Amino acid sequence: IALYDSERGLLADSLYSQVALHERFGGVIPELASRDHIRKTLPLIREVLESAGCLRSEIGGVAYTAGPGLVGALLVASVTGRTLARLYAKPFVAVHHLEGHLCSVHLGEPLPPGPFLVLLVSGGHSELIRVDGPGSYIRLARSRDDAAGEAFDKVARLLQLGYPGGPAIQAAAAGGQ
């Protein structure tokens, strides 16, 4: 959950990790993820607003992740966002999950010169994308049926290295020969 002001930038954000929840399964269980989203979304919203010193009525609009992604988790975001937007008569904006990742580079400093190449690894998606500017993307390659992160989880499980797989494999590789 984040609160962003177009003039002042990022005012506050909070992240809740579900790694511990899914660790014993060696990967994400969609139903458990959705239920945890229900449990954590409103407390995180409260935390971010409090951290920024902002009232709900002061929010200029609500953006939410519209997809792609886990259907249950997307529904939690949609219903929560739509409810807040209607309650306070504010605009309600859908954000494409993967485009959000692509555009997040613009939140930092210094901005990379365009065009730039992005390796997008998110959930079930692994794509190599050329970004020429906002809204101008060319997909160069993508995985067909498995994401890189999922592959790391599976390899780590086979090697009994732990979950999530990426950091576990990185740690094992750092000590290897």
Characterization of the model:
The chain has helices spanning 19-23, 30-52, 71-87, 97-103, 148-158, 165-174, and strands at 2-5, 9-13, 62-67, 92-96, 116-122, 125-133, 136-142. It is of the alpha+beta class and 177 residues long. The chain has a 3-stranded antiparallel sheet, with helices on one face. Strands 1-2 form a two-stranded antiparallel sheet. Strands 3-4 form a two-stranded parallel sheet. A hairpin with a 3-residue loop joins strand 1 (2-5) and strand 2 (9-13). The mean pLDDT is 87.
Summary of the model, kept short:
The protein is an alpha+beta fold.
Fraction of residues in helix: 40-55%
- The total count of strands amounts to 7
Hey, roughly how much beta strand do the residues contain? 15-25%
Q: Report the major sheet.
A: 3 strands, antiparallel
Q: Indicate the mean pLDDT.
A: 87
Key descriptive features of the protein:
177 residues
Sequence-ordered SSE layout with sheet pairings:
Layout: E1 2-5, E2 9-13, H1 19-23, H2 30-52, E3 62-67, H3 71-87, E4 92-96, H4 97-103, E5 116-122, E6 125-133, E7 136-142, H5 148-158, H6 165-174
